[in-house]
């Protein structure tokens, strides 16, 4: 077919814009006479363009076997109709959310890509497409996306090397300033593609290749797209079938897009969670900027805005020179340099050419980042609920309900569920951050009035975003357009990069994304009494101030107080509660996840022998003792114990003196703070004395540090109160109670062995075949006695090895000083042995010994193990001298242990053989089930055939059917 013949065929089936508009009935979708598609932007501000537009004349189709040249998409009007109908189908299915425009753009782009993919296979219309055209598409999308599916590298090789090298060479600063998009457009024209970022893709490939021109286009390493990305693209491609066979496909390209995406794509992986130490550093740094540095930056910015207003009659160039001279001489700038963590040397500059200097813009961006971190963390908000141009925070969203009680409310936009602004109660720290943002916004607003930006349309105060700013320039004084703050920690030029650099100085680099702040909200709640940075922050803010937001999510007993707050808010109570419940449901998911992780961390630490006190630690060890008696080869004991306690409903609830692990367990009757009716816990009565013997209480040394800090703070407050007053006596009593509680915790931690817990000691005693029969009443004296006698036996062992040929006796050895010593043969003899007064049972102080008790060695199994080794070595040494009795108890014990080890190995093999037999039985069972299913299907088919033959024939075969049923 010649090109002219193809053009004639195209003219015959050309469709006009009016024909397409007749089938476009969606109100938010338009098509102009010059082939420009318009989509209404739901996220647009009143001063922004209300429609997103796409010009089909700028789209193109590549060369193929039938058309050896690039064609305009507008010449194939039937394809434009297809794209428009796909967009309409998507809009009908989608909801009216702020993300609709971005998703519609993605839909349009992927539709153009798949049409380009089919065009390269000589499919001039969708009616000629067959399922085989899509066979290779998922695999290519998994490799390098549309770049691989559309063969961008292969098509680039067909262009002259000199022309291609000129198209992809690096742009200069002038080209960037004047608009470097022209090269992107020229490259798309040369390749005949609609792919985005083709220029970056080819430049990346060029950097990986040789410097020789012939090797510029070498193959890139295989990428691997995620399963979610591939599924989304295949779902969009299926819209070509949903619009009907007249304008789309007559078959669904991918009947199961999710299964296909999982087959070819990278498995779904969760974004790495932020560690608690990193979260604490970020929050602490944000608080420092909001409370101290932010006001200094705002004062300097206000001074600069006054200078802009004073020079508003000057030209842009002279205004820039005036600002530079003023800023260099500013006294407030010098004061700010002495306080801020970095000196402010310039008014503004590009971040790519800083050369170690810092600017006022960086200080403003650090302040905005700190405010965003505080608001997002303290209120568990999404990024766009704070930063979005239209739906984010605005001037006037913060209102004070009660100055005496520091009660504030903020109108937050509920993004995912409610899709409207709802007032929420916020704490003092959030209010301070918003007030600081409003102060910065007022300074920039005065600049906007004096030197208007090109993109500013005068709107009401409700449309003034708190996260917009203006740049400064030596050439133009003030930037011509507004800039919008955006938290993008992964971007090369991120507005948050300087703040994160300061906050995470000295820490391991980790990617911080905006969605992690909801997790930080939960980390603050669970680790506020254990992390050092959070402890410092708690006592700077006061625990009550920080927890005021968290309390309504985490404390069911305090939620009725929420109704009193909502009663004074300007919104119906029912609507308020519904919106809040939807928001809290999402927040509680993150809280539950972090809580489960915290629970697992505590359980594993208890089992590993770390220092913990409280009844819950004993409870976990008791559960572990039970599990140790059962044999499970396929499950770790720690995981099994964690699953057991989780199944019983235990869940952490942090308090100042420790954690309450009662959770939703049904055994709350065992709690110390249970009500008389045995129906609920009175956590408001919780304290060290109340919870000390509770089975659900768990505490660690970190909580003791928290209480020490609280004691110092309370003592400082008592010193400021007038003596002999009622408040003084009350605070003094609180200090005394806290001191008594701290002393009680210190005693409990001191009595807990640091490396081997009591649970481990009992486990060691259970595994021992022999138990000592006596022990000292005084445990300190018993430990001293054991250590002293062990030292003597150590010396005896050393001396015996040095003089083995000199002293042939078996029951008498010598120390290193040559003195003979008689040593015990068993643990019981060791307990009764008095090395000072003589050999066994001579001079024994009966008052210091208690019969039938194993307390000493049960509490100190490490010493017991050490003693066993010494006694065993002594007896082995005696055996070498051939004078020891054959009935050595330790040799008998050794034989028994070896025999038990062989039995244990046999027992371990038996479950493995049983599991193998079970698997074989399962295979046989599955094959029998398949045979039964086939018999049932054949039986049903025979019955249907019999019934189809007629009632007379069916009656004749009734006997046969009954036999088949049997």
TrEMBL record:
The keyword Transport does not apply. Residues 946-966 are annotated as: Disordered. This is Phage integrase family protein. GO terms for biological process: DNA integration; DNA recombination. InterPro entries: DNA_brk_join_enz, Integrase-like_cat_sf. The keyword Electron transport does not apply. It comes from the Bacteria. One of its GO terms (molecular function) is DNA binding. Keywords: DNA recombination. Residues 952-966 have a biased composition (Polar residues).
